[in-house]
Amino acid sequence: MPIPPATGGDDLPEVGPRYIWLMTLAQFGVFVAFITPIAISLSIRLEDLAPGRDEYLGYIIGAGAFAVVLTGPFAGILSDRTRTRLGRRRPFMIGGTLLGIGALVFMAQAPNVLSLGAAWVLMQLTWGTVLGNLQISTADRLPESQRGKVAGLTGFATQVAPVLGVGLAGLVSGNDLLLFLVPGAVGVVAVALFVVFVPEADSRLLDLGERLTVGRLLRKFVFDPRRYPDYACNWLGRFLFYFGLSLNTTFTAFFIASRLEISVEEVAGIIAAVALGGILATTVGALGGGFLSDRLRRRRVFVLLAGVLFGAGAITMAFAPGLPLIIPGSLLSSVGIGMFAAVDQALLLDVLPERETDAGRFMSIIGFAVSIPQAVAPLIAPIFLAVGAAGGEKNYTLLYLVAGVFTVLGGLVVLRIRSVR
User: Fold this and answer.
1) What are the CA-CA distances from residue 178 to residues 27, 175, 182 (Å)?
2) How far apart are CA 388 and CA 267, in angstroms?
3) Is 267 helix (H, G, I), strand (E, B) or coil?
4) CA 379, CA 389: separation in Å to the nearest integer?
5) CA distances from 68 to 50, 126, 349, 384 (A)
6) Domain annotation covers residue 208
7) What is its subcellular localisation (predicted)?
8) pLDDT in tens, 58-112
9) Is 357 exposed, middle or buried (0-12, 13-18, 19+ CB in 10 A)?
10) Which of 86, 149, 317, 412 is the most buried (most CB within 10 A)?
11) Global confidence as pTM
12) Number of domains in the chain
């Protein structure tokens, strides 16, 4: 007879090493497949299809993020209400991965910029669904005592993943299909291992609660900040941090090419080399911040520190004339990204409302705090790039300064959270 899944809460039993390491590996794999296009592959394909039109990259990434904004909560809500022998989360991981491979092939074979943009939208929806359900699983399973540790490990993995992805892309940059499918294969294998070896309780006997009408479904897209003020502060802090991060990272390839006066095609190897040093920096930020926040039972100060460190790195890069300053700026940013990814995720699980019944819903809503900046920041970035620019040059200095300001503001906002130290 099927048994109902265990409900979430701070009294959850601790999970074992298999869950922790396969969750870390699965998120790592998804990010290799998902973030590599942002880091380099999209830039290479765009340069082939529309040489010199850097701004198209922002439009493409923005369109994909807007698609997630419009559809994201559906996946979380449907996941909460899914009743299968495989559980609530695994069917979405399986389906998203299979469709995600199709999106990668579509991107590799896109004949024009419009097709490339459509493929990226599909990429966002499919791999984003996989990642979302992996993260919802942590809300279902992790007790408070393990949230910082697991968030540190997954945060580290997801920040290091683009390094491997860019390295793989650099090795096969002459073949459009392999440029996308080699990183994608890493994602498929990692997710498959999690789905196969991490069991999820049969959800067929779980109570569905009230009937889901169109009106109730639409109302689940929003929440009352007055009812959940700490969750609202976490949402806003994440929004501001990722707005700054999106301004910074979307144009990394073009920024380095501009500062070093080389072509975009030559950037892949340089980005990979610079990012290798970021592995240690990200490790310090993610693991150090995650483990210490569990041990000291403090989250907010580490989130603030993450915003300040990223801001310092962005400002350093803003005024960097070449690699001697780009490298330390990148390292500072890596520490900040790693720390924020880990501790803010643990903080989110601490303040997540209605964990037992609507974890997928609220985890999806927090996704707006990432997808909206990813949609809006690339569209706004060309405005900053154009300020004071002349002769075809772009104002990357201003763009990186603004990015740093937003990440610091994101760290400051979480200080208003009251239920968590």
Assistant:
1) 21, 5, 5
2) 25
3) helix
4) 17
5) 25, 10, 21, 25
6) no
7) Cell membrane
8) 788 878 877 877 777 788 888 888 889 998 999 999 999 999 999 999 988 888 9
9) middle
10) 317
11) 0.76
12) 1
Quick one: CA torsion of 145, 148, 149, 152, rounded to 10 degrees?
170
The answer on pLDDT for 219 being more than 80 is no
Residue 87: CB partners within 8 Å, gap ≥ 6? 5, 200, 201, 202, 203
Considering only residues 90 and 211, tell me which one the structure prediction assigns the higher pLDDT: 90
Report yes or no: 39 and 110 within 8 Å, Cβ to Cβ: no
DSSP 334-373: HHHHHHHHHHHHHHHHHH-SSHHHHHHHHHHHHHHHHHHH
Which tokens is 196 given?
A: 């196969």
Structural domain span for residue 150: 17-202+220-416
Question: Which segment of 103-107, 174-178, 413-417 scores lowest on mean pLDDT?
Answer: 174-178
Q: Are 177 and 109 in contact (CB under 8 A)?
A: yes
- Measure the CA–CA gap between 314 and 299, rounded to whole angstroms: 23
Half-sphere exposure of 204 (CA within 13 A, CB side): 7
How high is the pLDDT of residue 391?
Answer: 60
81: in domain: yes
Decide if 110 contacts 45 (C-beta within 8 A): yes
Separation CA 102–CA 105 (nearest Å): 5
Question: 308 in the Ramachandran plot: left (φ > 0), alpha (ψ -120 to 50) or beta?
Answer: alpha
Domain membership of residue 25 (yes or no) is yes
Better pLDDT: 283 or 122: 122
Q: Which of 299, 310, 357, 366 has its CA nearest to residue 338?
A: 310
Query: Cα 408 from chain centroid?
Result: 19
Confidence of residue 2 (pLDDT cuts 50, 70, 90): very low
Cβ contact 108:183 at 8 Å: no
Q: Which residues contact 124 (CB under 8 A, 6 or more apart)?
A: 64, 65, 67, 68
Whole-angstrom Cα distance, residue 146 to residue 343?
12
Q: Locate 69 and state its tokens.
A: 């904004």
> Could you give the percent of the chain with pLDDT greater than 70?
95
Q: What is the DSSP letter of 167?
A: H
- Reading the block at residue 253, the tokens are 């390839």
Residue 122 lies in a domain: yes
Look up tokens 């789905």; give the residue. Answer: 195
CATH number of the domain residue 253 falls in: 1.20.1250.20
Token pair, residue 12, equals 């959850």
221 or 381, which is more confident? 381
